[in-house]
Amino acid sequence: MGMLHNLADLIKIKKDKMTILVLGLNNSGKSSIINHFKKSSEQTSIVVPTVGFMVEQFYSMSGVSIKAIDMSGATRYRNLWEHQFKNCHGIIYVIDSSDRMRFVVVKDELDLVLQHPDLCNRIVPILFYGNKMDMEDSLSSVKIAAALRLENIKEKPWHICSSSAVSGEGLGEGVQWLIQQMRFAMLNNKNAAKSRSKHSK
Amino acid sequence: MAGAPNWLHVDTEDESPSPHLTTLSSCMALSDVQCDGYVRLLAADISLDDDAEEPSATLKVFRGLKLKQEQPLPGIPTAIESLYIDETEPKTPVIAVAIAESVLFYRHLKPYFKYTIPALESEDLELEVWRKLPVMKSSSHPALLDSLRNIDHSKLSRKSQRLLQMSEEEREDFIATHKDSPVGRVGSIVAMCCLKRISSDANPPSHLVLATDSGHILILEPQGFNLVFQGRTCDDETAVPSLISVQGTFETDFCIVVATRNGGVYLLRKTQSEGQEIFKLGIPLTGVLLLPIDQTIIASTMDNRYMCYSKRGKLLHQVQLADLPVCLLPLPMIHLGLTLVAIALRGGVVKFYLQRYLVDEFSLDETVDAMVYGRMGMEDHVLTLVTQSGKIVVKILRRVSRFEPKLGDMGSKRSGSDHKSIADASILDKPKKSSIFVEQAAREKQQAKSTYGSFQVELWRLRHTAARATIDAINSSESTISGDLTHAPVKLSAEVCGSGPAFRLYLTVQNLSTFKMASNLVVLLHADRRHYTIPQTLARLPSVLPGVPLRVDFEVVAVLDPMDKLPPASLTPDNSLIRVMLMKAGQAKPLIAAAVSMPQSEAAF
């Protein structure tokens, strides 16, 4: 009986949309990554700096419908990020792995995201893209994880992978991980809600 | 906000080779040299090694903190600026490097143009000497050179200055080789600044403002290389500019603030080509700034002060610094709508002031020599600091940082009262000097002695009157509260009831002490017997406990003429009084002596 329930839940999830928030500093390659996930007919050849935010729809390779909110990374738009925290299921945090000077800013912004009250008590998987891996002085994902001290993130599942938004390398792997984690999180939330309602009865 | 620093420190430990730089604030610039949107740090690295024969300089370009390019410079630069010269797209910045009397322009880091400031007129005598030197015998040279020595050294051309320093053997060759070169005197550029032509969008085309050691202020238009403005710091030849700061736009209006080596600060405007002295300090300045919004002039001096003047030369506020200020930098924060002033002190402390308030500070291991602030890389608010040993430190402003003056105010209060007193002394609100004020001041000056004397006389008279009144009050005990210190304080209040001729006088005696008992009290009433009849004039009171009021009453009958039923003629409202005395048994002096004024009596029918 329980298994059937789970199965039904899985099918249900497949029907509803997953919302992913795409964050990162300006010029880290957020829009380019989203552009890569879109159908080849909808892709744009020139990516311009995002103003405010863009909402994009696409299907992942496993057929899950994904609504991606592509936030602008410019300093003056970064305060818009927090308004989307409430209704997102997963976060993609894009890092320019060649811009070593700004790692400290990346870390600061990441801390602000993680400490936000809308996120700190929820299980939201975070996927880090060490983007621009094709650049000459880019750092490996291990080094980025060390520089950002990602090992201190205990409450949320996270994963880091190197990527290149230009060639599309490494992008699929990351998104697969993220979708899997979002499913787990949703199931957990539902189970938790169920058990809570049982308790209240 | 407390706890979290406002500035994020960029870690440069693992950078190899670690960047090294010896430079000045004026020799650093931020520029998008490659036109790729990534702003690079440009700096002149000045090598002052003892083993090298001549000090030399190289222009270095850093991408992030990585040295990407370098180019030797033909001399030691005084300033480097990055500017846009036209509106053509794509906008390409031009690097201007001021070296001695010329400005070198680089485009895409390739030499592009060299501009030399116009030569000054030489003294006639000097021209004459140079005409004579090649043709006359060497025996007569010393006489000619002596005549050159009579001219002010700074007014000689470089050629003559050099010649005067030479020994006799060298002179022959020097004269032979330089006899045909022009006898021109050129000033060196001591400071250079950018001035926007118009206030338009980002990266508007700019002009260059040059200050020379001959005291000239020039504005160079870098498209046709014409001088579009020529001014002088002041008519005094010895006022050599050392620092300049510019605000405004060339097309509308601009202000140039020039600080000289002897501590004077002058202001030039578009309409006013000769500097107007704003203020003069006896000590050299280490930095001068003209702030964009409130148009105040900030100066830091060698005697550890940070001062703010208005454009009219009024000292608005000053702060005593803990150590010598080494460099001063404005930090315009457009997103917050304010401009901070960063001051690097000797020892490595960097303080940030918002007007007079200290809003932030941090400390480095060693003294900061040079600072530059602005967009670097992809980040808007980056502060780059170069320390004395050549280490580059990069700090990035946190996005959530806010600078509140209140926090700083509290900080300065805590840090010491001497800071406060200096700040307060300068902001005292003094009235404007009106003609009455001036006349009064003159009178005071003329008759100081008699003014002082009459003031003192009046003062003593006042004191005397006050003292006499005090003595009287004490002696007569004329009050409603007893003043005897050895006794519990007692308060007396009176109330008169009735309309006459029979009245009832209610007295309330209250002990005001918290623990002492007031015992053996007697109330005595006294009145003129022609006016009032009091059947009982004396009452012995029981002990009055603290806090419990005691009420006693007396009958008072007004005396009326039996014939016409009217009060006697001698009764006036002034003397219709009943004296009430509260006494302690065994003491001659009453504790309280009060007078109760009686109302006018009705006629009895």
UniProtKB/TrEMBL annotation, chain A:
<dbReference type="GO" id="GO:0051649">
    <property type="term" value="P:establishment of localization in cell"/>
</dbReference>
<keyword id="KW-0966">Cell projection</keyword>
<comment type="similarity">
    <text>Belongs to the small GTPase superfamily. Arf family.</text>
</comment>
<dbReference type="InterPro" id="IPR041839">
    <property type="entry name" value="Arl6"/>
</dbReference>
<keyword id="KW-0963">Cytoplasm</keyword>
<keyword id="KW-0479">Metal-binding</keyword>
<dbReference type="GO" id="GO:0048731">
    <property type="term" value="P:system development"/>
</dbReference>
<feature type="binding site">
    <location>
        <position position="50"/>
    </location>
    <ligand>
        <name>Mg(2+)</name>
    </ligand>
</feature>
<keyword id="KW-0519">Myristate</keyword>
<dbReference type="GO" id="GO:0046872">
    <property type="term" value="F:metal ion binding"/>
</dbReference>
<dbReference type="GO" id="GO:0005525">
    <property type="term" value="F:GTP binding"/>
</dbReference>
<keyword id="KW-0970">Cilium biogenesis/degradation</keyword>
<keyword id="KW-0449">Lipoprotein</keyword>
<protein>
    <recommendedName>
        <fullName>ADP-ribosylation factor-like protein 6</fullName>
    </recommendedName>
</protein>
<dbReference type="GO" id="GO:0016192">
    <property type="term" value="P:vesicle-mediated transport"/>
</dbReference>
<dbReference type="GO" id="GO:0003924">
    <property type="term" value="F:GTPase activity"/>
</dbReference>
<feature type="binding site">
    <location>
        <position position="31"/>
    </location>
    <ligand>
        <name>Mg(2+)</name>
    </ligand>
</feature>
<keyword id="KW-0460">Magnesium</keyword>
<keyword id="KW-1003">Cell membrane</keyword>
<dbReference type="Pfam" id="PF00025">
    <property type="entry name" value="Arf"/>
</dbReference>
<feature type="binding site">
    <location>
        <begin position="24"/>
        <end position="31"/>
    </location>
    <ligand>
        <name>GTP</name>
    </ligand>
</feature>
<keyword id="KW-0547">Nucleotide-binding</keyword>
TrEMBL record, chain B:
<dbReference type="GO" id="GO:0005813">
    <property type="term" value="C:centrosome"/>
</dbReference>
<dbReference type="Pfam" id="PF14779">
    <property type="entry name" value="BBS1"/>
</dbReference>
<feature type="domain" description="Bardet-Biedl syndrome 1 N-terminal">
    <location>
        <begin position="16"/>
        <end position="269"/>
    </location>
</feature>
<dbReference type="Pfam" id="PF23304">
    <property type="entry name" value="GAE_BBS1"/>
</dbReference>
<dbReference type="GO" id="GO:0034464">
    <property type="term" value="C:BBSome"/>
</dbReference>
<dbReference type="GO" id="GO:0061512">
    <property type="term" value="P:protein localization to cilium"/>
</dbReference>
<protein>
    <submittedName>
        <fullName>BBSome complex member BBS1</fullName>
    </submittedName>
</protein>
<dbReference type="GO" id="GO:0005119">
    <property type="term" value="F:smoothened binding"/>
</dbReference>
<dbReference type="InterPro" id="IPR056419">
    <property type="entry name" value="GAE_BBS1"/>
</dbReference>
<dbReference type="InterPro" id="IPR028784">
    <property type="entry name" value="BBS1"/>
</dbReference>
<feature type="domain" description="Bardet-Biedl syndrome 1 protein GAE">
    <location>
        <begin position="490"/>
        <end position="602"/>
    </location>
</feature>
<dbReference type="InterPro" id="IPR032728">
    <property type="entry name" value="BBS1_N"/>
</dbReference>
<dbReference type="GO" id="GO:0005113">
    <property type="term" value="F:patched binding"/>
</dbReference>
<dbReference type="GO" id="GO:1905515">
    <property type="term" value="P:non-motile cilium assembly"/>
</dbReference>
<dbReference type="GO" id="GO:0005930">
    <property type="term" value="C:axoneme"/>
</dbReference>
